[in-house]
Amino acid sequence: TEISTAAAFVTRLLRAAGGVGEEQLRCFRECLQEAMREHYKHHWFPLVPSKGSGYRCIRINHKMDPLIGKAAGMIGLSHERLFQLLPSELTLWVDPFEVSYRIGEDGSICVLYESPEPGGKAAKQLESRTSCKEEWRIGRSSPSKSYNMMTVSS
């Protein structure tokens, strides 16, 4: 569910930007899901969901995330075209029981999917509500959530 939610989100960003056909978008989503499944295979820890979070983080920050780049290459989209279609700053965290994202370095962290119970009994997908990006555009605040922050300096 988490991988499907994340892939659907990136696909929706591409769809919203325009210029990519529906068949290409379907193929992109499937390719991205497969790339993520393979990449996360030995880095998924439901008993300790934050373990491996950095490894599972999808990031566009003036460099294209390799998983997105790989899926885009399968449908003939270059990295240059992806930079035109997707936000230049995007962070997508794909963790057991939660998928969240941030657009921009100073953007709000928005939750796409969360499941409070291991096993997903009370899982809910948050696609039906207004996205944080849309809320930001119309001046609403993003969902409140407590995050532990860690600062790393070199």
UniProtKB/TrEMBL annotation:
Q: Which domain of life is it from?
A: Eukaryota
Chain ranges of the Anti-proliferative protein domain: 86-105
Swiss-Prot/TrEMBL GO biological process terms: negative regulation of cell population proliferation
> What Pfam families does the annotation carry?
BTG
Q: Which GO terms describe its cellular component?
A: cytoplasm; nucleus
Give the family this protein belongs to, as stated in its UniProt record: Belongs to the BTG family.
This chain's protein is named BTG1 protein
Source organism of this protein record: Eulacestoma nigropectus (wattled ploughbill)
